[in-house]
Amino acid sequence: MKKYLALLALSVSLTSVATAQQDPKAGKILDQMSAKYQAMKAFKATFTQTLENDAAKVKENISGDITVSGQRFRLKISGQEVINNGQTMWTYMKAENEVNISDYEPEDQEISPSQIYTLYKKGYKYAYVQEAKEGGEMVDVIELSPEDRNNPVYKVRLKVGKTDKAVKSWQMFKKNGNRYTYKISKFQPNVPVDATTFNFDKTKYKGVKVIDLR
Length: 214
Hints:
Elements: H1 2-6, H2 24-38, E1 43-53, E2 58-69, E3 72-77, E4 80-84, E5 88-93, E6 98-103, E7 124-134, E8 137-146, E9 153-161, E10 167-174, E11 179-189, E12 209-212
Parallel strand pairs: 6-12
Antiparallel strand pairs: 1-2, 1-11, 2-3, 3-4, 4-5, 5-6, 7-8, 8-9, 9-10, 10-11
């Protein structure tokens, strides 16, 4: 569960409203990027997450994939599945063959799997940094800074493809010294999904222990 909470954990609070002057160049790129993803009915991304902490001499890599449709998602990472249908959230742990069920309350969630595409719209300042090359492709580098000083994240750095306006990678910098890097290795737009995609079917998990926390 901790790894899930770390995944895409870009903000604890989205309550403050951005009032500062924003960088118009960065804003235009972010708007184009956001529109691209929000226009999709669903998408699936395969990614690698790298956690680094120089002081603690830590470097860990884990891989996973996530399918997203609006606020619904199905995440598979490191022996876990997290499924959200917009109302209920299931967290399945393969090693324990156990699933925890809880109500999905967006305002109480530390993360949102699609938050990376709309994060800049509320409570963040953003600025254009530079052009760079990522995997042989030119990208625009943009930095986001939370206005809430109590946010454990002090900076998010996005790399957006100059041609296709797709997010290629992003980094999250936390005050505790942890640095998370997420790289998309495969992206599938408009993947087919249905009601079963975002619901937990316990008949497919023989002998699973169900813990209902609602």
